[in-house]
Amino acid sequence: MKKFLAAICAVLALTTTAGAVEVAAPSALLMEKETGAILYAKDEHAKLEPASVTKVMTILLTMEAVDSGVLSYDTMVTASAHACSMGGSQIWLKENEQMTVDEMLKAVCVVSANDCAVALGEAISGSEEAFVERMNQRAKELGMNDTTFQNATGLPAAGHVTSAHDIAIMSRELILNHPDIRQYTTIWMDSLRGGASQLVNTNKLVRFYEGATGLKTGSTDSALYCLSGTAERDGMELIAVIMKDATSAQRFADAQTLLNYGFSTYALKHVAPETPLSPVPVTLGTQATVQPVLGDGGTLLLEKAKAGDLQQTVTLSAGVKAPVALGDQLGMLTVSSGEEVVAEIPLLAGEEVPRITYGQMLLRLLRLALLSD
């Protein structure tokens, strides 16, 4: 719980309110991928129509199905009459036409194909209705409390809403745990059906923004222009979410404004103890010491001005009493920039040490007595 609260405080400390950087969109958010830190937020919990940015969840569930073995990239998916009836952005699937999961994922990621999105959902869950249930269940699991999905595509439907905050959450889940999605989201131009169907990415960042990695555009008459735009530079990947911009050009301009702000202001630093951590003595344990480890991997998101010359201080307990549980806090690694503390990373027990039993204690005493003889 302490670690969780510390992470929340770090996120709150980094968050930039609207005004420090300006975007035209009424709702927007900038998030760093590794830490999940929110770097900019503007009315981020407003419940708005996401249009085809919905498909981030459709893509996420497809990638999870591939990872779990439910599907493979080579699985053939047969287009149903329902999938072919979607309209909007599509590749004009014909009923009973077959394509691989690989081809359909490409069509969804590059040209936002509604027909392929529904076909993939049906392949995973049996019907679009069942797939939408899974979409909403996954949203709850991820803590997307502003979200209700009504379909797999983002086509207009009463009550189909999400928020910039929730889009960032599902976008992070996708790019953090399924990096292979880049093989689709970074495509600028490609083709299907042996070259007969040409694909050009709806996400102009892929062509024109340095380091762009994706992710998904969306637009309808009511949702206006939306985007979850991702980019990576110097080992840091950012997620810029734009909702309800007035024009397509403005959503890309707003996303670039946020991404430029993030890359110019923040840096990821990976810290580790400069010297090996000493074992902590354990009283009445089945072993005499317990080895501490760094609690959260040591990844810090810092303002660039504070990320240069960092100093470390290690504080460890003089000793602990058994039982020691895996993950019990044993100390703290304090990271400072000049006089300012920029991070306090818990040092945790890297193993469990049970309390010694009376029988084990007796055997230990007998061994000591024999050794003393």
Automatic annotation (TrEMBL):
Pfam families referenced in this protein's UniProt entry, alphabetically: PBP5_C, Peptidase_S11
Any Gene Ontology biological process: proteolysis
Binding site for substrate: 216
Record: active site: 52 (acyl-ester intermediate), 55 (proton acceptor), 112
Tree of life domain: Bacteria
SMART domains to which the protein is assigned, alphabetical: PBP5_C
Coiled coil ranges: none
Stored InterPro entries: Beta-lactam/transpept-like, Peniciliin-bd_prot_C_sf, Peptidase_S11, Peptidase_S11_C, Peptidase_S11_C_sf, Peptidase_S11_N
The keyword Hydrolase is annotated on this UniProt entry: yes
Signal peptide: 1-20
Keywords from the UniProt entry: Carboxypeptidase, Cell shape, Cell wall biogenesis/degradation, Hydrolase, Peptidoglycan synthesis, Protease, Signal
Pathway given in the UniProt record: Cell wall biogenesis; peptidoglycan biosynthesis
Catalysis: reaction(s): Preferential cleavage: (Ac)2-L-Lys-D-Ala-|-D-Ala. Also transpeptidation of peptidyl-alanyl moieties that are N-acyl substituents of D-alanine
Residue stretches making up the Peptidase S11 D-Ala-D-Ala carboxypeptidase A C-terminal domain: 266-355
GO molecular function term, any single one: serine-type D-Ala-D-Ala carboxypeptidase activity
EC code: 3.4.16.4
Functional description taken from the UniProt entry: Removes C-terminal D-alanyl residues from sugar-peptide cell wall precursors.
Family the entry assigns: Belongs to the peptidase S11 family.
Name of this protein: serine-type D-Ala-D-Ala carboxypeptidase
Native species: Pusillibacter faecalis
